[in-house]
Amino acid sequence: MKNKLANIFIFLLLGNQFIYSQNFAKEFGKATQLNFEDKQYAAYQNAEAVVIFDLGKSYFVRDQNSYDVVYERTTRIKILSDAGAKWAEIEIPYYHEGSVWEKVTKIEAYSYNYDNGLKINKLETSNVYEEKINDKWSVKKFVVPQVKAGSVVDYRYSIISEYKFNLRDWEFQWRIPVQYSEYEVQMISFYEYTWLLQGTNKFTEQSSYVDSGLKEQFAGVEFNPNVHKFIIKDVQAFESEELISSINDYIIKLDFQLSRINYPTGGSLEIITTWDNMIKDYLKEEKFGKYINKAEKLSTKLIDIEEFVNKTDREKLDFTIDYLKKNFNWNGINSEFASKSPSDFVKDKHGNSADINLFAVGMLNMLGINAKPVLLSTRGHGKIKYDYPFTHFFNYVILMVPVDGGFVLSDATEVFALNDRIPARCINDKGLIVSKENNGWVGLECLFPSEIKTEISYNLANNDTIFAQVTKTATEYDALDFRNKYGSNIEEIRKILESKSIVLEESSIVVENQLDKTKPYVLSFNQILENQVAGDKIYLSPFLNESISNNPLKQKVRTYAIDLTYPKKRTFITTLKIPEGYQVEYVPANQKFNNILFGFDFSTQTDGDQITVKFEHQLKKTVYPPTDFTNIKYFFEEIVKKSGEKIVLSKVKN
User: What span, in angstroms and rounded, lies between the C-alpha atoms of 432 and 439?
Assistant: First the structure.
């Protein structure tokens, strides 16, 4: 293991690698006419903006009897279109936990516009705002002034941090092109780090050297910092594409974690060892393993264990999860560590995801069920890299419960979720079982489909107006999404529907099964449409705007997986009665194909004066490899094409 980690930090020594960064750094706060010449950006005609240079630097500074880490960033962006002005809206996240803090300093920003001479606009410090994200993260926000198409934007800042466990990661790739990106890290002998490069297997330039001109002394030890530089040039934009787990899984970036502390007095402490040792540390942790033990003892005061002597494991699970959902509120914060003691959690009646789910583990253990916590990374946080035991891969904990000869995964934060389901945000590859025995990895994937069935009944009796009765029935994760999105508040549902340009018939909204999680969620309403009459013909879209109208996959090629979160099935059934005096001129042709990847079945049937159109399509897997991209893109293209076809009715000629 030690040799493997040591091999990670091998660097190639290159010459003449510092010229670019030195010149770029000197350019900050200055702009020349060259920065505004169109020919310089001809290669980026389709981009909203382009990063001219992005320079990062992390180094250690003495602070009494320890060291802090200073992170500096200097960035210049050329705005190429009005839409690109959003790249002048800057956010700087920083961390704070207990006595560990970070501080953002030296914020400076300018915009430059060239219009009969150079115009310079400086950011005023009074226009820098602070916002708390959660109990550990805050963000500094500012907007560089007077930015428009053609502007050049400069900004820089520093972050002083006591948090040495993770050096700042560095993203070489943005959602816009990057001409030059460099990250410099100055290491000192007391802290050793491992790093992981994602999204590519090489740098444009990479170097390592000892800074002989910067000698330092600490606790009687003399040393010179080791400087490591990583440069990548001409990085393509990461194109925004739907159906991915997280951009963090694919973007080109460097990820650092502390691997060893070397003490000035001799000896060292291994920070990264093995997954097994990490699990042991979690079980000893006050806000994890010890929290579970305290929750188990405290649970005896909350419920009467004698009432559960003859209960099944399933009944004990349902009681525990329902009890927590009913009596405690999730504050919306994801965490793998509890934020308070079990007694404070019981008193406050709210907490983060770990407060709730670790308490559930303790309560189930008290009831005689050997429940185990499972560490995971939520979808927005990125996937875990299993070869490297980095604790910061994790940001969430759920529970694994033995039931009926198998096991289920559960989570007590989602009130409207079934008790043997985890939230969709947690469906992200695998989770790590934290247990003294039988630890290892468990799959988090969902193998069963969630369905939305949309039934539409047209009424064409009125020549000027069409009435459509719409009923949407959702199951599984789609039902959970509907319960959270729509709920049962009729006024809120009306606002949501009307924001989609749906004209509703008064008092027609009905909701069924909002609180009964075991049944499908049902939403129905009556919609009013203008009659699409052209001459003696009526044109009808069978599925209104309920089916997709654009292919979510727009790239020509794709190098990363298509991730649906869970398998999806969509069913549309439309019926309409042909009005008197009209006949069917055209109905879309039947179309059907089915394979191991997806199913597609479109059919129409005319029976007397009634037309029935049925369209059912299903993606059968959760994750598709890049090799299936062409097939899945074709699948969506056919859905869009078929959904857009219209029924045509024409007047009967005498």
Answer: 7
Provide the pLDDT for residue 472: 97
265 by Cβ neighbours in 10 Å (0-12 / 13-18 / 19+) ranks as exposed
**What are the mean pLDDT values of the chain's consecutive 10-residue runs (654 residues total)?**
36 38 71 77 89 94 83 95 95 85 94 88 94 85 95 95 83 95 90 87 91 68 84 90 84 88 79 84 95 96 89 95 96 93 96 97 96 95 85 92 94 96 95 90 93 94 81 97 95 93 92 96 93 81 90 88 94 93 92 96 94 96 94 96 93 83
The structure tokens listed for 336 are: 């793998």
CB atoms within 10 A of CB 328: 20
* 404 vs 414: CA distance, rounded Å: 23
Contacts of 639 (CB under 8 A, 6+ apart): 547, 548, 600, 617
Place of tokens 């599984």: 476
What distances in angstroms separate CA 493 from CA 163, 436, 498, 570, one per listed residue?
45, 48, 9, 21
C-alpha span between 7 and 37 (Å, rounded)? 45
What integer pLDDT is reported at residue 513 of this predicted model? 97
Residue 12, pLDDT score: 30
Q: How far is residue 497 CA from its own chain's centroid?
A: 26
How far is Cα 467 from Cα 483, in angstroms, rounded to an integer? 26
CA-based radius of gyration for the chain: 30
Distance of alpha carbon 224 from its chain centroid, rounded?
41
Token pair recorded at residue 46: 């389709």
Whether residue 598 contacts residue 617, with contact meaning beta carbons closer than 8 Å, is answered with yes
CA 434 to chain centroid, in Å, comes to 24
Rounded Cα distance, 472 and 480, in Å: 13
- Interhelix angle for 289-299 vs 275-284, to 10°? 40
How far, CA to CA in Å, does 185 sit from each of 189, 198, 217? 13, 17, 19
CA atoms within 13 A on the CB side of 55: 20
Is residue 377 within 8 Å of 394, Cβ to Cβ? yes
Distance in angstroms (rounded) separating the CA atoms of residues 76 and 86: 14
Helices (H) and strands (E) in the chain — how many of each?
A: 10, 38
The secondary element (H helix, E strand) that includes residue 479 is helix 476-485
